[in-house]
Amino acid sequence: MPGYDDGWSLVHFPTPTFGSHQDTPANPPENPRNRRWRRSRVLAVASVAVLLALVGGGTAVAEAHKTVTLDVDGELVTVSTFAGSVTGLLADRGVAVGPRDAVSPSGALAEGSQVVVRHAHRITVSRDGEQEQVWTTALAADEALDTLARRDGGPVALVASRSGGRAELPLELTLDGPADVIVDGTTTTVHGSSDAAGTLARLGIALQPLDLVSVQRASGGRVQLVVQRVVVQDVTTTLEVPFASSSVEDASRYTGTTTVRQAGVPGVRTVVETVTTIDGVETARVLVSDAVTAAPVDEVVAVGTRARPASTPAARVSGDIDALNWAALAACESGGRVDAVSRNGLYHGLYQFSVGTWAGVGGSGLPSQASAEEQTARAKALYARSGAGPWPHCGPRLFT
User: Does 112 have pLDDT greater than 70?
Assistant: First the structure.
């Protein structure tokens, strides 16, 4: 008689008979066809699972591989990588970064990413004459100048460090555009990216050990590489040390007369200073030594203390002034020289007139510039007025 249908199969099973005297076995024997069907089903499911695993793994591998651009301090390279993060990429490429370096972006690495690394440089900057060291990730001097100006406000200069005959600045002059090189009063425009040392070498500019090299931005916006010539040298200056003057009494000379017994000689003071100039302009002066290298010689003046002799009335009364020995007086006073001038510059001519006395007897100008005849005539006029008193030491010679 017909049996029921199995939902997984079209095989007919016999219809069980209930209420019979014969019990149904607990585990009736399985149909061999059913065993084969179940085995085939298990193998099919397993095959599908393996296929799905292989397809999923290929997708994961494809997603792990990516192409990115790596920019390290302006050097760009296209990289194929399986790294999943920026940190992993940099580690794979051997790019070391420090705490002051800049890396962008950070975190996970995606297909087509552009990773930018900027290593920090320590540079010296000058602002209002004061220098300090700062860190910057700028690629060129013009970028660093703009960044520092925005951060701190006001103009700033980058100071190159000196190493022998080179000027070391770990930055190019400009990212793009010309720059001016200013040295020894001359301005030269350069094009193309180059550092300070390379630019100066290309122009054949030799640096002296103390020269200063800096990079600044001019008011017009152009980047300037400035070389300042620094000279430090010892400068010696000599100054005159004045001499002192002292007097001694001289009993051989008449009262009111003086003579220089020892001429004064100025001393010498030597000053040594270290002078610094920048482009010929003095910026510093430091005293090295200051000493008197030649002592002055003091002047000694003899002052007469001898009483003056009384005038000779006979000579006055006689009126024979021309008969007096004027040649002897001149020889005693001036050695007979018409243009004689005393060492102190006060007395002139044959008879050693003072300028005031000379004017008092009608003379003009200096007695030493007058003729012998005029000097003798005015000496006679002085004698007629005052006798031999104006010549206390030599006056007695008139009567010899």
Answer: yes
